[in-house]
TrEMBL record:
SUPFAM superfamilies: UDP-Glycosyltransferase/glycogen phosphorylase. Keywords: Transferase. InterPro entries: Glyco_trans_4-like_N. The lineage of its organism: Bacteria, Pseudomonadati, Pseudomonadota, Alphaproteobacteria, environmental samples. GO terms for biological process: lipopolysaccharide biosynthetic process. GO terms for molecular function: glycosyltransferase activity. Pfam families: Glyco_trans_1_4, Glyco_transf_4. PANTHER family: GLYCOSYLTRANSFERASE WBBK-RELATED (PTHR46401). This is Glycosyltransferase subfamily 4-like N-terminal domain-containing protein.
Length: 357
C-alpha cells in the first residue's frame, strides 16, 4: 500500500455523524473514492467513530476531550510524523503543530452572532485560521465574513466551493403516501422546521408567523431535531400544534415531499444544506436572508428579512395557492440540480496539494 500523503482528522464524527458538516465530509470522501484521491488519504479516526462510514486507510487515535485543546497539536503532529503525511485537514478545527494545514470554513456563526470566543472550540478555530496555508469556504458569504472577521486570512489562498445534495434526497425513488406520517402525529397540513428550536435557527420567527394566522390557515409545525420546542409555544398553539419527530433521511424526504413548505428562518447560515434538500424533495422553501441563504436559494425560494414574522406569515399562507406552490417546486428542483459535490471535493484536493508543495 502506498504511503498516504494527506491526513483527514475526524473530530466532528466523534460527536455528530448526521448533521450538515458530517454530510459534507461523507460526500467529499465518497467523491474522492470515485476519483482515486482517497488512496492518497489516511483518516485520523477519533475513538473509532469512522469505521462504519468510510472504506479507507485509518489510524485509530484516542477520542478527544472537546472541552480542551491542550496537547492536541502535539498529538496530531506525532501522528503526522509517524505516518509521513505532507498536509492535513480536520473535519472541524483541529490542527497539528507543524504539518501544513488546510481549513474548511463552514460558517462564521460564533463570530457573527457574538458567541463566547474564549471557549476551547472557538479558540482552536482561530488558532487554525492563524496558521492555515489555505482555506476552502462553502459559500461566497462565508468567505466575505472570514475576510472581515479574521482579516489575517485574506493574505492566503481562499477558494469557494458549494456543497452538493446528499444522495438520499436525489435518488428519484417515489416517496410513500402521507398516510405513513399519521402514526407520528403529523397532520395533513404542516410546515417543516429542521434543527434546534433554540439558538440561531430562528424558530421564534416561525412560531409567531404561524400563531398570527387564522385557525383555518394555520399549519402544524413539525420539528425535526434533537430538542423540543419551548413549552410556552407548544401550550399556546395547543394539542398537535407543534410536534417533534426523529427521522432518518428517508423520513425527512417523506416529510418534505408532503409539506406545505420547508421554513428556514435562521438568523445566519454558512450555507444551508437543508434548503437544497427540501428543493430536491419537491418542497416549496420559505427562508430568511440570513448569511448565505439567498446565495443558496437564488430565485427558487421565498426569501424574507431575518426576524420578519409578518412576512413569513404571509409567505406561509401564500404557498397554499397552487400556482405559487407549483412555481416554487419547479424552480426548486431546477435550482437543486445545479449543485454537486465535485467542486468542493476538487477544491479541497487542490488546497491540500498546494499546502504540501
Amino acid at each position: 500500500m502506498a504511503v498516504p500523503e494527506f491526513a483527514i482528522e475526524g473530530t466532528f464524527f466523534q460527536t455528530d455523524r448526521v448533521s450538515g458538516i458530517a454530510r459534507v465530509w461523507t460526500n467529499v470522501l465518497a467523491e474522492w473514492r470515485r476519483d482515486g484521491f482517497l488512496d492518497r488519504i489516511v483518516l485520523f479516526d477519533r475513538g473509532d467513530t469512522m469505521s462504519q462510514i468510510f472504506d479507507a486507510r485509518r489510524e485509530l487515535l484516542p477520542a478527544r476531550d472537546c472541552t480542551s485543546i491542550d496537547g492536541e497539536p502535539e498529538l496530531l503532529q506525532m501522528w503526522c510524523d509517524r505516518v509521513g503525511v505532507r498536509a492535513f485537514c480536520s473535519t472541524y478545527y483541529a490542527y497539528p503543530a507543524r504539518t501544513p494545514s488546510v481549513a474548511l470554513i463552514h460558517d462564521m456563526i460564533p463570530e457573527v452572532l457574538g458567541f463566547d470566543l474564549a471557549e476551547p472550540m472557538w479558540r482552536e478555530k482561530h488558532a487554525l485560521i492563524a496558521r492555515a496555508r489555505g482555506f476552502v469556504c462553502v459559500s461566497h458569504n462565508t468567505r466575505r465574513d472570514l475576510e472581515r472577521l479574521a482579516p489575517e486570512a485574506a493574505a492566503r489562498p481562499i477558494a469557494v466551493a458549494h456543497p452538493g445534495i446528499d444522495p438520499a434526497f436525489t435518488s428519484g425513488e417515489p416517496v410513500d403516501p402521507p398516510s405513513r406520517l399519521e402514526d407520528l402525529g403529523v397532520a395533513r397540513d404542516y410546515v417543516v422546521f429542521i434543527g434546534r428550536p433554540s439558538g440561531y435557527k430562528g424558530f421564534e420567527t416561525l412560531f409567531y408567523a404561524v400563531a398570527s394566522l387564522p385557525a383555518e390557515a394555520r399549519p402544524q409545525i413539525v420539528v425535526v431535531g434533537p430538542e423540543d420546542a419551548p413549552a410556552i409555544y407548544v401550550e399556546y398553539l395547543g394539542p398537535g400544534g407543534i410536534v417533534r419527530i426523529h427521522a432518518t433521511d428517508d423520513g425527512i424526504r417523506l416529510l418534505l415531499a408532503h409539506a406545505r413548505a420547508y421554513v428556514a428562518p435562521s438568523r445566519y447560515e454558512g450555507f444551508g444544506l437543508t434548503v437544497l434538500e427540501a428543493m430536491a424533495s419537491g418542497c416549496p422553501v420559505v427562508c430568511s436572508d440570513g448569511g448565505s441563504l439567498p446565495e443558496v436559494a437564488g430565485d427558487a425560494a421565498l426569501v424574507l428579512p431575518v426576524g420578519d414574522a409578518a412576512a413569513f406569515a404571509a409567505a406561509i399562507d401564500g404557498v397554499r395557492d397552487l400556482r405559487v406552490r407549483n412555481a416554487l417546486i419547479v424552480r426548486g428542483l431546477r435550482r437543486a440540480g445545479t449543485f454537486s459535490w465535485r467542486p468542493l471535493a476538487d477544491a479541497l484536493r487542490e488546497a491540500l496539494e498546494a499546502a504540501a508543495a
